[in-house]
Amino acid sequence: MMKGVVTVLVLALACSLASAYDPSPLQDFCVAINDSTSSQAVFVNGKFCKDPKLATADDFFFSGLNTPRDTSKSLGSNVTLLNVDKILGLNTLGISLARIDFAPYGLNPPHIHPRATEILVVLEGTLYVGFVTSNPENRLFTKVLNAGDVFVFPIGLIHFQFNPGHTNAVAFAGLSSQNPGLITIANAVFGSNAPINPDVLAKAFQLDRNVVNYLQKKF
Fold it and tell me: What's CA 14's distance to the chain center, in Å?
C-alpha cells in the first residue's frame, strides 16, 4: 500500500514539474495562427497552429532589432520583446528574445517574469543589475555589467536593470518561454485595476494613507 502511495506521489510531482514550463513540442514546429476559424488550425499551448505544410520562412523571421528604440519616456528605457505574438514560429518552442535600450540613468524597473528565466548580455554601455530571492531571506544579488558581460535572472524572482552611466546602454535578453509574462511591481501594486484598498497598502508598506493615495494616482 505504502509503495503504491509513493508511486502516486512521485508521478504527481513529475507531472507538476512537467507543467511548470512551456511543454516540449512533439513535432518540428507548430506555427501560431491568429485565425481560429481556419479549418487548418489546431489549438496547441494557447495558440492555434497552422498546417505545417503552409508554414513559410517568414513565420520564423523578424527584422529591425538593430534599430535603437525611443528612450524618452519617464523611466528612460524601452523593451522590445519578440515573443510568440511577434514571431509566430516561436509557438511551443519555449524561447523568446528582447532588446532593451537605456538612456543615461534609464531604468527597467523591478519586475518578474512568472514563466521564464532570463539571461541578459550587455552590448553597449554599463548596467547595474540585480535580483532578490524569495522570503524569508530576500537576499539581493547585484552586479555591474559592461559590454560583453552576462547575467542570469532566475524564473519568478524580482529583478531590475539600471544604467548608471552618462551614455546610452543596450542589452539583449533571452527568456525561457514563448510568452514569459511581465509583472512590474510598482504598476501591479499601485496601479491595479480596480485599485487595491489604500488601507491594505498603507498597512503592508507601513506608509501614511495619503502617501498611498498619491502613489496610486501616479500609476
Answer: 25
Element (H, E) at 123: strand 118-124
Does the CA dihedral 19-25-26-31 come out positive or negative?
A: positive
**DSSP letter at 201?**
H
Convert the pLDDT of each residue in 98-117 to its tens digit. Answer: 999 999 999 999 999 999 99
Q: Which residue has the cell 479549418?
A: 39
What is this structure's pTM? Answer: 0.84
pLDDT in tens, 153-176: 999 999 999 999 999 999 999 999
Half-sphere exposure of 104 (CA within 13 A, CB side): 3
Peptide bond into 20 cis (omega under 30): no
CA distance 207 to 204: 8
